[in-house]
């Protein structure tokens, strides 16, 4: 038996924050497409160079390379029981590809928490975000500050601001989300898998709501 949970929601709503907590509580792997691209950028791979040219503009990386990257990732042993998917799928073509690849592993998408918040909240959260260079741990200058300025509490690595968190790029990312990802809300609702979660609450309350909804 496998468990695959897809976290759906706009840029900055808290998918990564919640995915890390859920992965720890459920022992499922955390698979973040954005983190995988950022790792490729850091390692200066061809995929990283390609991804950066889209990410810097706030646009989506093409479906074919994104699907292949996720396929490789969920084929790894730590996903044998399933995973929390954070940021994938993001287009109808990716959702269909996911269904096909999970069927190969005798699995399926089990639940799709859809986390929402107003645009002003998304801008405030991305604007104050700091990310850890080594492992992508997530902080916020006001809502979740590190103990020591500029240093990750967990692994001591440097914290940086993502290039795509400039307000102009966040605005593009929100528009791209509304155009290309919102159709997935109806797609998963029709399949009876969508669970709506209010993301405009404190981190701990969002986690409580997620765990309660996933238990059902
Ligand atoms: P990606 O890295 O996935 O970015 P995103 O979806 O835009 O989402 P974010 O990571 O910005 O936000 P989040 O929801 O994870 O929020 P977080 O927990 O960090 O994608 C980046 C780019 O990669 C895309 O633009 C695209 O180019 C490419 N890409 C990725 N996947 C792709 C795909 N499938 N197909 C094609 N291209 C793809 O929280 C945000 C901030 O808020 C943090 O500071 C956090 O501390 C704070 N915070 C979180 N929760 C709360 C709370 N409840 N209260 C207060 N503060 C909070
Ligand atoms: Mg994220």
Description:
The protein is an alpha/beta fold and 216 residues long. It has one domain: Rossmann fold. Helices cover 47% and strands 17% of the residues. The protein contains nine helices and eight strands. The protein has a five-stranded parallel β-sheet, with helices on both faces. A hairpin with a 5-residue loop joins β5 and β6. α2 (33-42) crosses α3. The radius of gyration is 16 Å and the shape is globular. The chain binds BIS(adenosine)-5'-pentaphosphate and magnesium ion (MG). The site of BIS(adenosine)-5'-pentaphosphate (AP5) has 37 residues, from α1, α2, α3, α6 and β6.
Query: How many discrete structural domains?
Result: 1
**List of distinct ligands in this structure:** BIS(adenosine)-5'-pentaphosphate, magnesium ion
* CATH class category name: Alpha Beta
Strand order of the largest sheet: 2-3-1-4-8
CATH architecture: 3-Layer(aba) Sandwich
How big a fraction of the residues is strand? 15-25%
CATH homologous superfamily designation:
P-loop containing nucleotide triphosphate hydrolases
The H/E string reads EHEHHHEHEHEEEHHEH
What name does the CATH topology carry?
Rossmann fold
* CA radius of gyration: 16 Å
In quaternary terms, these chains amount to single chain
Mean pLDDT: 97
Largest sheet: 5 strands, parallel
Number of strands: 8
Derived structural class: alpha/beta
Tally of DSSP helical segments: 9
* Tertiary shape: globular
* Uncertain spans: none
Helix content: 40-55%
């Amino acid at each position: 038996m496998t468990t695959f949970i897809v976290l759906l929601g706009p840029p900055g709503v808290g998918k990564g924050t919640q995915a890390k907590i859920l992965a720890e509580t459920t022992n499922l792997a955390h698979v973040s497409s954005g983190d995988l691209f950022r790792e490729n950028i850091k390692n200066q791979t061809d995929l990283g160079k390609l991804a950066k040219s889209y990410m810097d503009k706030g646009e989506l990386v093409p479906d074919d390379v994104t699907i292949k990257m996720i396929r490789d990732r969920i084929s790894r042993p730590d996903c044998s029981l399933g995973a929390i998917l954070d940021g994938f799928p993001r287009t109808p073509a990716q959702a269909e590809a996911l269904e096909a690849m999970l069927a190969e592993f005798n699995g399926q998408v089990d639940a799709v928490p859809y986390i929402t918040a107003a645009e002003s909240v998304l801008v405030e959260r991305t604007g104050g975000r700091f990310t850890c260079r080594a492992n992508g741990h997530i902080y916020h200058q006001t809502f979740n500050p590190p103990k020591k300025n500029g240093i990750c509490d967990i692994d001591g690595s440097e914290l940086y601001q993502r290039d795509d968190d400039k307000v102009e790029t966040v605005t593009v990312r929100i528009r791209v989300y509304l155009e290309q990802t919102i159709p997935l809300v109806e797609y998963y609702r029709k399949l009876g898998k969508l669970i709506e979660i209010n993301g405009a609450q404190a981190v701990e309350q969002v986690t409580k709501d997620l765990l309660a909804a996933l238990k059902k």
